């Protein structure tokens, strides 16, 4: 069998041996692809972060910590953020606790009217969102096939050591020699990583019916967060009614008694009508000046004709006088 490639594009190939289980009595090799983390918006910690793709579906932070310990020893691994966690933290889509009109208003004007939120405000919003959610019904999250994760290490040197350790796994071996590959942990402490299987499903069945007190707390937090965001949107709409944008237009509202802004369709329609009136006025002024120009040209032409007739009359008179001239004897 041909050797496993050490790299594919920018990714280093990390083979991991998954041992046999009672449900699947055969060991297999799973391939994780690793590279330096290079997000669209760079951060100060990117030099010590690694981007993983095709992580096993049952991955947890504890699993990755054990894997890194087998590669470069203990003390290098700090944290891991999985794909679904990054989407929850960075998603710009409105949450259930965000009124729809407020979400549209903030999406259209929020970033222009306020400065970037600081870390404390972001953390506070995340806590409010978490408190407003219903209790979880799963003790452990399974990932989709081919899912990704970002692992943060102690320093940049640790990230380099991990990539070097992955490269050493491919030296002098073939794809069939899997004894030297790191082993994916399957027997972890149940207190750290909840078990899968029947116990996982039984726990889900129990958690699907939370207590009335827990439900009431989540509902109260949701209502408070929803009302607060409605108030924030109303205050922003009130400011926008009197503040022109960069084009000199003021946000259109449906009426004096409402603080919510008009829909984007109504605003665009009002803007279109305003531009049409401006173009019409400009056209009228242009036609007026053209009328003046035509009148002035007519007057100048009439003046030239008048002068020509006067000059021609003078020439005729001069010729008549010359015909009656009698020289002296």
Automatic annotation (TrEMBL):
The GO cellular component terms are: CURI complex; UTP-C complex
Task: State the Pfam families in the record.
Answer: RRM_Rrp7, RRP7
Q: Please list the residue ranges annotated as the Ribosomal RNA-processing protein 7 C-terminal domain.
A: 208-327
Q: Where is the Rrp7 RRM-like N-terminal domain?
A: 10-186
Coiled-coil stretches noted in the UniProt entry, renumbered to this chain: 264-314
| Key words, A-Z | Coiled coil
CDD domains (alphabetical): dRRM_Rrp7p (cd12293), RRP7_Rrp7p (cd12950)
- Annotated GO biological process: ribosomal small subunit assembly; rRNA processing
Q: Which PANTHER family match?
A: RIBOSOMAL RNA PROCESSING PROTEIN 7-RELATED, RIBOSOMAL RNA-PROCESSING PROTEIN 7 HOMOLOG A-RELATED
Could you tell me what this protein is called?
Ribosomal RNA-processing protein 7-domain-containing protein
Record organism: Apodospora peruviana
């Amino acid at each position: 069998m041909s050797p496993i490639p050490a790299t594919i594009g920018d990714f280093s190939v990390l083979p991991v041996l998954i041992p046999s289980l009672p449900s699947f009595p055969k060991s297999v090799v799973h391939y994780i692809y690793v590279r330096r983390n290079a997000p669209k918006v760079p951060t100060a910690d990117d030099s010590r972060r690694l981007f993983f793709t095709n992580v096993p579906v049952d991955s947890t932070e504890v699993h990755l910590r054990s894997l890194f310990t087998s590669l470069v020893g203990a003390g290098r691994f700090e944290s891991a953020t999985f794909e679904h966690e990054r989407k929850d933290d960075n998603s710009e889509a409105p949450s259930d606790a965000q009124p729809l009109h407020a979400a549209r208003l903030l999406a259209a004007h929020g970033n222009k009217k306020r400065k970037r939120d600081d870390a404390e405000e972001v953390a506070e919003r995340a806590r409010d969102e978490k408190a407003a959610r219903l209790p979880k019904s799963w003790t452990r999250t399974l990932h989709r096939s081919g899912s990704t994760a970002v692992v943060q290490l102690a320093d940049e040197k640790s990230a380099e050591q991990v990539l070097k350790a992955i490269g050493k796994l491919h030296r002098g071996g073939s794809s069939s020699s899997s004894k030297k590959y790191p082993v994916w942990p399957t027997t972890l402490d149940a207190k750290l990583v909840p078990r899968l299987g029947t116990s996982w499903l039984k726990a889900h069945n129990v958690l699907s019916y939370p207590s009335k007190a827990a439900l009431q707390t989540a509902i109260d937090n949701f209502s408070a967060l929803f009302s607060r965001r409605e108030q924030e949107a109303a205050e922003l709409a009130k400011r926008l009614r009197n503040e022109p944008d960069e084009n000199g237009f003021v946000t259109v509202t449906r009426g004096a008694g409402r603080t919510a802004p008009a829909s984007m369709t109504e605003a665009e329609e009002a803007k279109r009508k305003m531009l049409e009136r401006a173009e019409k006025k400009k056209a009228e002024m242009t036609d007026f000046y053209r009328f003046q120009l035509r009148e002035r040209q007519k007057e100048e032409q009439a003046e030239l004709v008048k002068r020509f007739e006067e000059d021609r009359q003078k020439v005729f008179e001069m010729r008549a006088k010359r015909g009656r001239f009698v020289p002296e004897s």
